[in-house]
Amino acid sequence: SIQNWRTCHVEMGLYDAPTNGSEQYVKxxxxxxxxxxxxxxxxxxxxxxxxxxxxxxxxxxxxxxxxHVDDDDDSTDHDQRYAYHKRIAIPVLRSICGDDLAMQxxxxxxxxxxxxxxCDDECLLLQQQKYNMVNDEFSADIHNDGLASxxxxxxxxxxxPNSPLRSLxxxxxxxxxxSMKFPRYVLQWCANRKRYGDLLDIGYRFCxxxxxxxxxxDEHHHIVMxxxxxxxxxxxxxGGAPAAHCRVKNVKWIHDLRREQYDDAASHLVTxxxxxxxxxxxxxxxxxxxxxxxxxxxxxxxxxRRFFLSMAKLASRLATxxxxxxxxxxxxxxxxxxxxxxxLINDGLVLIRAxxxxxxxxxxxxVDLILRDNKNSDAKKSASEALMGETLLDIACERIIDCNMExxxxxxxxxxxxxxAEIMTPREEADAxxxxxxxxxxxxxSFIWRQTILGEIQTWQSLVYANERNELSEDAMKQHLSETxxxxxxxxxxxxxxxxxxxxxxxxxxxxxxxxGQIRIMVLQDLSSYIESKSEELGKLLQIAAGLVFQEEDDLxxxx
Length: 560
Known about the structure:
Helix content: 55-70%
Structural class: mainly alpha
Order of helices and strands: HHHHHHEEHEEHHHEEHHHHHHHHHHHHHH
Strand order of the largest sheet: 1-2
Radius of gyration: 35 Å
Distance between the termini: 101 Å
Number of strands: 6
Strand content: under 5%
């Protein structure tokens, strides 16, 4: 252009052309909005199918974009027009003149979207070349690590100290009024498209400090860069559809594992689980410091939750040796936090196992109704999602009293219900005192024990009357009692509790009818409305039944 010629000959003294930024500077005629609109209209007609000569195309695009560089207008309106002209000009230029010139102008004018599009297409081409599409044979001589390839164009642009993208002017403006440099733009570009693997690999290899800052931010909604534009109010990435809400913090644990920050990885994994639990009404723990509210958090599947908790458990174990090398006195709070986190992990895994038990082999119509009430019209789909404690407890109680279900399944459902009752903390108890939470646990456990009796209420009524009339011998009565669901559950519960205490070398709270006096009182009070005149006799019989379990344990210890 004329301005370029004038600028190039200033040093020769042939013509005095004040540079942009000086007081004597006068914008060249190419900065006219009318000329820009005329070129832009011409370019849009070309994108519709007309094919001009390559030299004409290059001249029009260079003139249009250079006019913005020559302009001394630094208003937001000018920046928006500049971004718009880059967005319509460079893609058309690429289709006519090829990738090299499109990349050159994208770099000259800091058109980040165009740079990423070209780099991404280069990777796709390499991936296609990596596999011989004719005979479907793997081409081992072609190496490609995607956008994070060390030899790729993007890697060179991010690491080359002479890259034009390292200029202070190399920024892109966002529609929210903020601006970002190229490394941050690359990370946001990947996040907008939910390409988290590329995001982590690129950040780890080329801009790890920027990646660390990026991942530490709690929320990353889809940020709209002005040069990418909008369609019908939704942000549209170059070459893709509008991206949904994304939260990159949910992949930070992968970055932590890569850096061997196992303690941080475990904390982030547990937070992901507790955040999802919080968004669906209840939590599995009262540790509110580790729970974050997120209205956008999707419903977690059972397999996802199992994976996150299992990875958190492994990460915690890997972090243990380093913790032992530190001074115990300086890390009391840290060790306490890790203990609470481990309890969250264990409780979460117990809930997963409990859900597998109480949702196996179908159930009654009442169970299906509970699943549908869990904000899901498809009961089978609900069973594959991670359900909350109260929902699981309701399902367990329905299965316990379902006489059409196999006896062993009813035992398993009862044990699962007791496990849920012990670890579950409803929202209303999250900030309650320890004694209040303990009482809530016993109330839930007493309800489970009551269900084991109501599920066989006719059997118990018959045994009460038979005991009053001395119709059965002592041995016959014990035999009948030992076959009830109440006693069978007691037997398995005490056995499992004993094994756990021996394995973990701890004393566990007993929430059985036989081993907890408060639970026993609650159960008998609840049952008094079902057998009004015989409640005292039923209580005595239940005591005898519970005592059979301890008698059997003593007999086994005596034999051993």
